[in-house]
Amino acid sequence: AGAITSLHRQLEMQESQLRAMKSEKEMLQKRLRERDNQLQAMSTKFFSLKQERQHEEIMVAIEKENFNLRQVAMEQTSKLAEQSKLIHELQKTVSELQAEVLSGQHHIHKLQRAQAATQSQVEMLQHRELKTRVALECVISRFEKYRSKVIQATFSTAGSKPPQVEVTDEELLQAMQKIINERTEFHQMLKQKGIK
């Protein structure tokens, strides 16, 4: 009976210790769940903060990229404006050069027409000159024949000596004048004597 009683006490003590251990286990499990919940909450909060920070970093990077893109766009717009101005100036220069070329071509065509007209006039004048030369040679030939006949007639009269050298126009005129004067005197003498 003493041994049984002793065993009962030990059993009750062990049961009491077991209950205490169960109670402590439950309390520890509860605290563990609370810590786990806290940890989960902190983890969630940390993840959220991390995501928010990443989002902010991404937004900052996007803003920076947007700023850089705006700068590039402004530079490209400025370059485009300069190129447009240059193109406009080049188009203006091209138009002026085209106008000058057209004016030059018009002037060249005008000169070509004037040259053609001048060439035609030159050819006409050359033709006239040729005809005039032919006519002049014909007149000179006729004049020389006539002069030869006049010289022959002048120096073939009685009392005249044929010329030994070429007779000048002045000498021929003097010889003719002499013959005319002599004939006039002879005519006057015959008239005075009554001879027709």
> Which structural class best describes the helix and strand composition?
mainly alpha
Anisotropy-based shape:
rod-shaped
In helices, the fraction of residues equals over 70%
Secondary structure tally, helices? 2
Looking at how many chains there are and whether they match, the oligomeric state comes to single chain
Q: How is the main sheet built?
A: none
- What's the domain count? 2
Our measurement of the CA-to-CA distance between the termini, rounded to an integer number of angstroms, reads 233 Å
Low-pLDDT residue intervals, each spanning 5 or more residues: none
**Structure summary, number of beta strands:** 0
Mean pLDDT: 87
How much strand?
Answer: under 5%
The helix/strand series, from N terminus to C terminus, equals HH
Q: Specify Rg, calculated over alpha carbons.
A: 73 Å
Task: Please tag this protein with its features.
single chain; 196 residues; mainly alpha; 2 domains; 2 helices; 91% helix; rod-shaped; coiled coil
Concise structural overview:
91% of the residues lie in helices and 0% in strands. The protein is mainly alpha-helical and 196 residues long.
